[in-house]
Specification:
single chain, 242 residues, alpha+beta, 4 strands, Ribosomal protein L7Ae/L30e/S12e/Gadd45 domain-containing protein
Length: 242
């Protein structure tokens, strides 16, 4: 079941899954954060803190917690955020779900739903094994409409390294490499070939209708003169009104 296919979730299916999640919602107390002027003189350990939220037993929150549970075989179903960006974040989790045959669904606006129901805006919800069976059964029922893709092959099987026998390679004849040394400082040991001179000599032609091509590269950018900044001084002959 690809992530792209899962984002095309029907509205009635999304509502049915959302209603099942709302059956396990908790009471979220209202906490009004105090203004900084009121708490700046109060020690940090004595400042008012938001009350701890009651966690639903058997519910996994976050991609990391769900990934560890799927890898250990303790997760029975997964719900993901459909509008996740970037989507590459959840690809390792989807690969593990395909290998472990764990059903998963992509629900639009999961962050908002989880914040309203469980007090934590998360993009991934997991169901532990033998917990929250009504949510798990609903995910399994809806996941049957979206067939899961086959898990991708391991990198070791896909990228096969071919061994090359060096002895079977045709070896060309070895040409000795000799170093050149100068006998005197006034002479050059390396003399460039005269091919470049011959090519330049063929280009030159003295004739009546011949126009020699210039070797200078044409500059597209315009050249401007350097800006001169003059210092402005006051006029000493100015008549001041008293």
């Amino acid at each position: 079941m690809s992530y792209v296919a899962q984002t095309k979730f029907f509205e009635n299916e999304a509502k049915s899954l959302e209603s099942v999640l709302k059956n396990h919602s908790i009471d979220i107390p209202v906490f009004k954060k105090a203004h900084w002027k009121e708490i700046k003189d109060v020690p940090k350990d004595q400042r008012p803190k938001p009350p701890k939220l009651k966690k639903v037993e058997g519910l996994l929150l976050g991609i990391r917690e769900c990934s560890d549970s799927v890898q250990n075989g303790g997760c029975s179903a997964i719900v993901l955020e459909a509008n996740m960006n970037p989507r590459l974040i959840v690809h390792p989790l989807l690969e593990m779900c395909s290998k472990k045959q764990v059903p998963y669904l992509c629900l639009p606006y999961l962050k908002t739903i989880s914040a309203n129901c469980f007090g934590v805006p998360t993009s991934c919800l997991g169901i532990k094994t033998d917990h929250l069976l009504d949510i798990k059964n609903e995910i399994v029922k809806l996941a049957k409409n979206y067939p899961q893709p086959k898990p991708s092959e391991e990198l070791g099987q896909v990228n096969k390294v071919e061994k090359i026998d060096i002895n079977k390679m045709d070896i060309t004849e070895n040409t000795p490499f000799t170093f050149l040394y100068r006998k005197r400082k006034s002479e050059r040991i390396f003399v460039p070939s005269s091919q470049d001179k011959e090519v330049n000599a063929t280009k030159k032609f003295i004739g009546q209708d011949f126009i020699e091509f210039s070797e200078k590269k044409e500059e597209k950018s315009k050249a401007y003169m350097k800006m001169i900044v003059k210092r402005i001084t006051s006029n000493p002959a100015r008549v001041k009104n008293k």
